[in-house]
Design goal:
heterodimer, A: alpha/beta, 6-stranded mixed β-sheet, B: mainly alpha
Amino acid sequence: MSAETVISVEAVSKKYRLGMISSGTLHEDLSRGWARLRGKPDPRMKIGGHGSGFDEAGLLWALRDVDLHAERGEVLGVIGRNGAGKSTLLKILSRVTAPSSGQVKLKGRLASLLEVGTGFHPELTGRDNIYLNGAILGMSRREVTRRFDEIVQFAEVEEFVDTPVKRYSSGMYVRLAFAVAAHIDPDILLVDEVLAVGDAAFQRKCIGRMGAVASEGRTVLVVSHNMATIDSLCTRCILIERGSVAGDGQPAAVIRQYLEAADAAVEGEASLVEHEHRLPGMSSYLTRVRLLNADGQVTSTYVQGAQIVVEIAYDASECALPLAGAGIIVTGASGARVGGFNTYMAQAPPHAVPQAGVIRFTIKGPCFAPGAFWVTVSLGTHPRNLVDKVEHALGFSVLPRDIYETGYLLTPEDGVVAFSCEVEYDPAAGLV
Amino acid sequence: MRSKAPRTGADDWTQTIRPKRHWWDLRLGELWNARELVALFVWRDFVSLYKQTILGPLWYVVQPLLTTIVFTIIFGRIAKLSTDGMPQFLFYMAGTVVWSYFSTCLTKTSQTFIANANVFGKVYFPRMAVPLSVVLSTMIGFLIQFLLFCGFVVYYMVTGTAVQPNAYALLLPVLVLLMAGLGLGFGVIVSALTTRYRDLQYLVVFGTQLAMYLTPIVYPLSSVHGKLHLLVLANPMTSIVETFRKGFLGVGDARWTMLAYTAVFTVVLLLVGSLLFNRVERTFMDTV
């Protein structure tokens, strides 16, 4: 099949001017102007995520001179850190916002799936919402009617088609929303992170559907943080760093490049002094959490089987009671608890830990399955009395490796831990 | 990099996204293609209203009735304002029904960007589809209220009051169109400006309430004189209200010149509104 370019991004830049961000009321504008007059920093300035920054002129370049061409039938993965510009690229392609300079040329109909269920109305039935959502996504009434049964079947909501979606379980809601989007039949499909929804079986179905879309000669552009998905689904991958294309090529190679770059960054570290996930009623004794690799370097990505070190720093000298222990809990991206460890497990009573300092937990097993994980950390004066606990204090991701040496790479659908099993075959026993 | 120059000619592209487009490029063709979407929005608004409340569409009836009763008591009985010899109840109801359509269109469309920020941030469709659908779905409410009003007109006629509906009533579609245009025009301008200044949202609600007193709703145009008369005449809603009363009650100051003024005003307003809206919709997502 001769290659035909269907997406052509030419020297596209997107910049945000200081004043454009988070402008709300006239009062805010005035206070901003006043601050500028006095030479003080903008009180309303919004700071971007990692990899972003305002330059001297007060401009934030979300994208800078991005050139990109995608061919028909390609499944193009886009990876990069938060704030690197992935979502901005998707928004420009889907026309939600306009580029500051450069131009984008597209061939064929484009549908964007930046969120599932955009425009769903809770009071309307599943049937009504299919038509409404379809129309918002650019389908004509006739097209929706033609594919209606397929959509309902895909979403597995046959019995509830005439029930208002407000009565749907969140799983059903998401399935229906994805089903509509998956049946738009665009020439170009943009997908942002929506694969992170639904149960494992449905995720598998969604990925299958995207593969099918691509095999029909359509083009898919996926933005995801899930390296396993990108690796298994995409035919090509692009790495975006600080608003520019930093890598382009085979998914495996680009993912490696991304991870090496990510390793160099300080993502595997978080200050806990003021953390949004500190449980109510807790005292801020935990000050920092870091993730280290076997060499003692800070990281947030591990290849399967690699040693993971969680290091917590704390200062509870103001605590009236002596500290007795500290612990960590690891949860999967879906919220399932993988397990945890604490100092009470490590030593028999009496329990005591220093009132301030650093504690390192080296996780030797089990072997995590590929995917994203969260670390929750806590301090206590008694196994049943916590004084500080920060949930989801820090995240890390685990990348697939051929741990079984059979070429079978696990995906997040295979669970949160990788089993280690021996298989025995006994052909004679089955014949009895 | 694997990026390579496009092999195909520029004319093959179905769509080009550029930083700016000409200010007069309103993409009306795109809006026309989205007519099914507009229809679905109208239908959604109507159906969801039915389902959310116990009284449902009954609210359409209760609201003008109560307003009319209050107006009749305050402006009719207590202040004893002239109603050009019309039964006070009918006089105020005519004004209320007309004004509530206009003001609802205005306030609802003025919230376009704020209320739909979530959807607008996720998917593209011609943004104008939203205010258009609002004006249309509000029309359903107006029709219900209008029928209620007609019922009272018939009642007063049967009971022998001097109410004389006449040929001016045939102008109703024109009047509704003008009101829709005015409401849409003002609303769209405000919605474009509210993306920058949220304060305007409150000003709009407050402003339309005050603007009602600059419109002959609780008084007839004939009772205003001097400079105030000119001010009320300059209000594009004035001719609509007066013509409406003339048509259905037989008393009112219906003048073609005034209607023509309103029509020109509406067209200019819509044009300005569309241009402003058009400018804002491209980069609106960067400001919220």
